[in-house]
Design brief:
Blueprint (H helix, E strand, L loop, with lengths): L1 E5 L7 E2 L2 E2 L1 H17 L4 E5 L10 H15 L6 E4 L6 H5 L2 H4 L4 E4 L9 E2 L5 E6 L2 E6 L2 E9 L4 H8 L8 H16 L5 E7 L2 E2 L33 E2 L9 E5 L5 E4 L5 E3 L16 E6 L7 E6 L5 E7 L2 H10 L3 E8 L6 H10 L3 E7 L21 H13 L5 H24 L1
Parallel strand pairs: 1-4, 4-5, 5-6, 10-11, 11-14, 12-13, 14-16, 19-20, 20-21
Antiparallel strand pairs: 1-17, 2-3, 7-8, 8-9, 9-10, 15-16, 17-18
Helix pairs in contact: 1-2, 5-6, 7-8
Amino acid sequence: MNFLHTSDWHLGARLGDYSRMAEQREVLEEIRTAAESGEADFVIIAGDVFDNFNPPNEAVELLYRELKKLADDGRRPVIVIAGNHDSPDRIEAPDPLAVECGIFFIGYPDFTRGRVELESGVAVDFPAQGILTIDFPDKPQVRILTTPYANENRLRKFLAPENREQQISDILGSSWNQLAGKYCDDAGCNILTAHLFMSEDRHAGELFAEAGPAVEEPDEERSILHPGGLELIDAALVPTPIQYTALGHLHRPQSIREGGSPIVYSGSPLAFGLSEENQQKSVVMVELEPGRKAKVERVPLSSGRRIVRKTFSDVGAATLWLGENPDVWVELLIECEKYISAVDRKQLYCAHEGITAVIPVSGTADPDAGAIERSAPDLTESMEEIFKSFFEYSKGIQADDDILSLFREVASVTLDSGSEVESET
């Protein structure tokens, strides 16, 4: 029994003003090829298929078209759960048509439906909320516990409406254990898929203590670790019968637990920010047999541009590098004593089609140092002094005479206009 685990496609995502649709088409084809060459019997997509609640039409069309190919007329069922970027209602909307193709969208934790028997001979059933089973003509039954993303209020409503005091992690753990105890045994293959932040860190559940969080989500993921979101879930809550846990949310491919029952984040198939610059993207192929440990193999992906940040001492050096590296997204930091002229900016943007930003920095600036700490402006200062402070804060360099002259011209026009309005009133 083989299956493919992937997540965090973020279809419709943009990088600044740039669309990523061409890259996303390419990487989805690569994922389908991996499923075919790995002879995957089914596919799990662990959330965040879209980048936001209202994705562009081309992203929706791409998802449906590629999932239909991936499902292979129901011979390879595809299980999709919602992530925190997805609208649960949008995820479940195509259900009546999707199930005929062997695609099963699960937006809410209490999702359930009747048994579906596909023309391929595969049958998918939903014996209770939070679990589905897959029956193949000649393979062991597969049981999948499903936990799409939901904030604490929604999870409590779906799983334990009568209990307003119990920790949400305890509620999840109790639900998982009840389902696993009733439906999961060594006669079949047992999987949990969820979109959340899981860790074996002993401080799980204490993220809002005065000492601060024990672990943090990387910058490129929209946080769920906040009041009203969803707390960190302890990996110890995964039930014993579960042979593999397929997670979504974190973009870096990683294993929370490798020994015993693997707990794995497949990671995103494309890089979506600078913090993912050096990550090898992949999907996960898993081999399962009833009562046996899962065999896990990462399948590297090669589609998509890298996202990099480069610092140059002058525009000429930057232009040369850009010409030699056309297939990346790049944030340029140019060391200069004053602002970058319009002529220089045009030269840079004409040299490369993937520049996400051009940022002037002083020669001593540290691009990784983060924002400069700054107190509130002193409003008793002159307008020009406030402007000079703001310019230095935002640009990392001091305003030169040309900039100050332009500011004075704009300020005088603004003041004159204000005087005219005041006199009219």
